[in-house]
Predict the structure.
Amino acid sequence: MKYLLIAFLITLISCSYTNQSKETTKLFTLDEVKSSGFKERGEFQTEFKDSEVSTWGFYKGREVAFIMYPSVDLANSSGLEAAQQQTEKIEITERNIGHGPNVEKLACRGYKPGVGVSGRGGLKLNSYSQSALGLNGTLIINKSNIFLTNDEIENNAPPCVRREPLYTHYKIYGNLVIMAEPLTTEDENDTADFIENLSGALPE
């Protein structure tokens, strides 16, 4: 009886884990993506191989991105490569660079919550640098303008501790690559769960 109970629990856990990762072979359109509640804000500058659409915006208060391909196979090949490149985090060996060479959207991380952005005793960017204050005070910067001269930084502004990919997690779902930024209040599993919930909000 004890062994039957153990076997039942293992099966239950396995089924629960499987249900957490939803898969599909559906080919989504951009309108269907928007119907989930995704608010489009812009397009990537990067030209992703074989992709049809690459867009970023917000879903339930945080930034997410979608790269769309004409087929599921291309999403699982070219899309997987793009997703890995855009979320590539590396060990810092030079200055404060903690991102791979192909990452387009970066975040300045390493400060305590509420510290480290303009207006809160932190990093200041000049008017020529493309930047935006993201969720929870995360400073989002354009990689082409991350190194500033002394004239471009106020004297009381500490340097960015480390520059990492804005998107840390991804999921291949049908013909889509879905990427999301993490919250400072969650761990990796929480961010992965958020993407699962987002994929589940897309039309069947």
